[in-house]
Amino acid sequence: MKRLVLLCAWAILLAGVPEARAARLYVDGFRYSDPAFETGIDVHFPDRPDVTGVRAVSANGTALTLDEYMLHQFTARLGPFASFNDFHNATVGDWQLIVGIGAGHEAGYNFLVNDFRTPFTAASFPPAPTVLSPPDGAAGVAATPTFVWDNGGPHTGAMESFFASVWSQTIPGVGVFDSSGGLFTLDTTTWTPPIVLPNGLATFLVQYETNENEDANVGTPVFNPGLSNINDPRIDWTGSSGDLFSRDLIDFTVVPEPGTAAALAFGGLCLLAYAWRKRRRR
After folding, report:
1. 3-class secondary structure, 71
2. Band of the pLDDT at 263, cuts 50, 70, 90?
3. Which of 228, 256, 261, 277 sits a CA distance of 20 to 30 A from 39?
4. pTM for this structure?
């Protein structure tokens, strides 16, 4: 009975108080083989359809406007940086997050990005890969390509994982990926994905991830009335995390293989013939 009374009391107290709804924040570090470094910030609001936009101010004071790349998911990239020190100064430290709520309302938050390692250096990232084939910007690539890359050196992190994906920019949603634990190991340096890519621009990504201490790397956002023009909207930050990645990303253009092109042409002729016959019958 006592438990029931307490629950009823909480229900009365919370009546008329906006419901807290989940959100997640990610701040990640990326290293490329150039070498170059980049910072990524992603914010997800799966239960907050009232969120209209997101801005951020990084640790070095850089203002960012996040793009909505999927429904209720916002992202921005900071960099690239030619040196680890520039990346570190922009990434590690105090950030601000400004969340648009409805029309003309903004809720401000502060959060801290910590050093991802102790000590945190360029060597904290996994070795960075370089795609060898096809080269970035290649034209006339087969619809069933084989990708080859240099993995940059030994990958021996205790929790390290690997991921590769290819997708069409011409027809969104056409793509495939695999990862270590599937077809790949950390030593894999070649992949022929089980897909026939459509004609046009496509993208290939190869990426290694450390998977260490993720939750501790990024602090929970704290509501700041001084950055806001509304009362606390009770966003429930159910997770804030960050990780270190090394990657290479290329674009290339696919042309149909001769057999595929002939089949497509034949199919097109058949459709024209069918349409012509239907018109004649009418």
Report:
1. coil
2. very low
3. 228
4. 0.82
Distance between CA atoms of 84 and 87, rounded to whole angstroms? 5
What are the domain boundaries of the chain?
20-262
CA 140, CA 219: separation in Å to the nearest integer? 46
Q: Which residues pair with 252 in a beta bridge?
A: 138, 202
Give residue-wise pLDDT tens across range 194-240: 999 999 999 999 999 999 999 999 999 999 999 999 999 999 999 99
The closest alpha carbon to 53, from 101, 109, 108, 110, belongs to: 101
Nearest-5° Cα angle at 32, 28 to 37: 50
Kindly report, residue by residue over 134-147, the tens digit of the pLDDT.
999 999 999 999 99
User: Which tokens go with 79?
Assistant: 């960099």
Amino acid at 40: G
Alpha-carbon distance of 242 to 93, in angstroms, equals 13
Sign of CA dihedral 64, 65, 68, 69: negative
Cα–Cα distance, 110 to 94 (Å, whole number) = 7
